[in-house]
Design goal:
Structural class: alpha/beta
Shape: globular
Number of helices: 8
CATH superfamily of the largest domain: Glutaconate Coenzyme A-transferase
Helix content: 25-40%
CATH topology of the largest domain: Glutaconate Coenzyme A-transferase
CATH class of the largest domain: Alpha Beta
CATH architecture of the largest domain: 3-Layer(aba) Sandwich
């Protein structure tokens, strides 16, 4: 079977795709602005049918409805990054936080210390050879998909095709859900006066042609403001 025939055979709706998730499963969600929102919404809609599904991810940009108090019997979130959308649940004991370096997370997946049953990912359309890109959310997602028993992919023509070690072949995907959604964006918050001062001081020592690695928060935003 060619990869194109394989692709067509794996196409389903989001609702059909998430039926494969069972009680007590561990579900990985591709983080950041690559969060596969349609798959997450479909999973949460199945809450009455599920118990003790562990949901793991880093920072996500969606609403994280699975951490709402009424979802406690159905989902338990385990965070590798305490983002704003899950912070209250962690503080109230309705979700867990694992403090860990980003560079160490993939080892948990590969050595079986943190087995993944289902990976929900958001990909670019396949190229002529059947490879899809993880787009704007590679981080731990490629390894998570490689280690998961089941991979459900939301495939979106608006997901940019990023290069490097960032691809997965159609043959490795269990279900495909086609969407045409806008990619999520991380909103810029209010920058304090102190953060603006720090940002200005940092920006002054950055030279033309420099390569920058920027984190999330008001200080990196302040640096970028003065680099306009």
């Amino acid at each position: 079977m060619s990869w194109m025939n394989d692709y067509q055979a794996k196409r389903v709706t989001a609702e059909e795709a998430v039926k494969i998730i069972k009680s007590n499963d561990t579900v990985y969600i591709q983080p950041g602005c690559a969060e596969p929102e349609q798959l997450v919404r479909a999973m949460v809609a199945r809450a009455p049918e599920l118990e003790n599904v562990k949901v793991i991810h880093l920072l996500t940009a969606g609403t994280a409805d699975y951490v709402k108090p009424e979802m406690a019997p159905h989902f338990r979130h385990i965070a590798f990054f305490a983002g704003a959308n899950v912070r209250a649940a962690i503080n109230e004991g309705r979700a867990d936080f694992i403090p860990i370096f980003l560079s160490e997370i993939e080892a948990l997946f590969r050595n079986g210390a943190f087995p993944i049953d289902v990976a929900l990912v958001h990909l670019s359309p396949p190229d002529e050879h059947g490879f899809c890109s993880f787009g704007v959310g590679i981080d731990t997602s490629k390894t998570a998909a490689e280690c998961a028993k089941v991979v459900i992919a939301q495939i979106n023509p608006k997901m940019p095709r990023t290069l490097g070690d960032s691809f997965i072949h159609i043959s490795k995907i269990t279900h495909i859900v086609e969407v045409e959604d806008e990619i999520l964006e991380h909103p810029q918050g209010q920058i304090s006066e102190i953060a603006m001062r720090i940002g200005r001081n940092v920006a002054e020592i950055i030279e033309d042609g420099s390569t920058l690695q920027l984190g999330i928060g008001e200080i990196p935003d302040g640096v970028l403001y003065y680099l306009k």
